[in-house]
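Bumping with the actual sequence this time:
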Amino acid sequence: MRIAVTGAKGRMGQAVCAAVTAAGHDLVATIDADDPFDLNGADVLIDFTVPSQTLTNVCQGLASGAHVVVGTSGWDDQMLARVRQAQAEGNTNVLIAPNFSLAAVFMMRFAEMAAPYFTSVEVVEMHHPDKVDAPSGTATATAQRIAAARASTPAMPDATQTDPQGTRGGTICDIPVHALRLRGATAHQEVLLGNAGELLTIRADSFDRESFMPGVLLAIDAIANLPGVTIGLEHALQLED
């Protein structure tokens, strides 16, 4: 398959280029911020850039007739609406994955399954300090999925009345989320679920960018069979109905 990569000079972009080449794909274009946007006939564009660039890259990729696989985080509803409009005008598909780590995908799925059965649940994510967005896309997606699974579950207990420094962290869909930024970290997340007398911890750790490459390759293979705009690698793994 013919592959183009945006953000090719970044660390993730370099890892993606090496992985697709090693897998036998034809790397036909590598594009960075100051380069002309020429996909050179690519079947699939892979975007690992930054939130301020990714929407433009995805729309240009669709306009060029390529399927698009996106690993950049920071997406909001307005951006997704623009992508859906751009995708509807063509014949190719988009897959946006908060995380390409298979461990992370299964962590989110297991947490979603367990969440309705526990009284309390919180999400803690940890990344390197060069990451520009917080919380991570994975933490956001995890919290959203947990909240949906707990839609008919009573509100979580929390007697906190004062927290002037915001030490309880933030919330996404009423799920507490904590974002840590530490030198030496790569990408880590844990979901803590509590009942009276017990605690379940579901954790995923990526120690190297190589951990994301099997998921990227799965997305490349699956994208042609995922019509429209798909959010989450779990659909490529057929973990969703």
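The tokens above came from a reply further down the thread. The chain has a mean pLDDT of 95.
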